[in-house]
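Q: Please design a sequence for this.
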């Protein structure tokens, strides 16, 4: 059964009164609360470190909102995790063979970004493979790496991708691959007219 973890636009209250939270959001919120407790941080301290407001952090932990990719990236930077590692912690233990139908897809509708965990991270292994898709003219920006010095290889499968790393923008066409260590902000842009689909290989230092 295909599992899709959908994210809405900039965090906002759920519509329609007070419906039950999405199960994935509920597990993710609980894990975020656990991580904050494990690191001995108050909401105020976490807000200072992440640049995310206390109210947004509190609502994310209570699964009252669906966090965006940018919000999760900021929390991952505080907790020293990649986004895939964080998302894998709210999934069941990964199998050695990950069938296509079982690869979780996480969507951030605010940016037109979809993220498929092709090989979810597993304890003892440092590498992972992710497939990203950006809709035409979509942008996604990260102001910091989740793990400083993270090794990344981005291989464009279909379409065009403008990727800015350390102030330099690279136009990547189908088949092109860019590799780098991540120390600062990055910006992904699909110049269109078609979506761009790319493979991302991540290796934790």
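A: Design:
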């Amino acid at each position: 059964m295909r599992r899709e973890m959908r994210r809405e636009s900039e965090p906002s209250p759920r519509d329609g009164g007070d419906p039950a939270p999405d199960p994935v959001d509920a597990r993710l919120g609980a894990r975020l609360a656990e991580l904050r407790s494990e690191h001995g941080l108050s909401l105020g301290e976490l807000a200072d470190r992440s640049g995310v407001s206390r109210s947004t952090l509190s609502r994310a932990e209570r699964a009252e909102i669906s966090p965006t990719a940018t919000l999760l990236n900021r929390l991952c930077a505080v907790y020293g995790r990649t986004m895939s590692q964080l998302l894998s912690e709210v999934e069941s233990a990964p199998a050695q063979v990950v069938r296509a139908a079982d690869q979780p897809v996480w969507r951030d509708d605010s940016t037109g970004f979809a993220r498929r965990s092709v090989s979810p991270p597993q304890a003892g292994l440092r590498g992972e493979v992710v497939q990203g898709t950006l809709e035409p003219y979509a942008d996604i920006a990260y102001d910091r790496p989740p793990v400083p010095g993270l090794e990344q290889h981005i291989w464009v499968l279909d379409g065009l991708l403008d990727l800015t790393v350390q102030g330099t923008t690279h136009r990547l066409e189908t088949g092109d691959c860019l590799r780098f260590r991540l120390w600062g902000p990055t910006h992904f842009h699909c110049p269109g007219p078609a979506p761009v689909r790319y493979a991302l290989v991540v290796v934790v230092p």
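Q: Thanks. Anything notable?
A: The two ends are 33 Å apart (CA to CA). Residues 104-203 form a domain with the Jelly Rolls fold (CATH 2.60.120.10).
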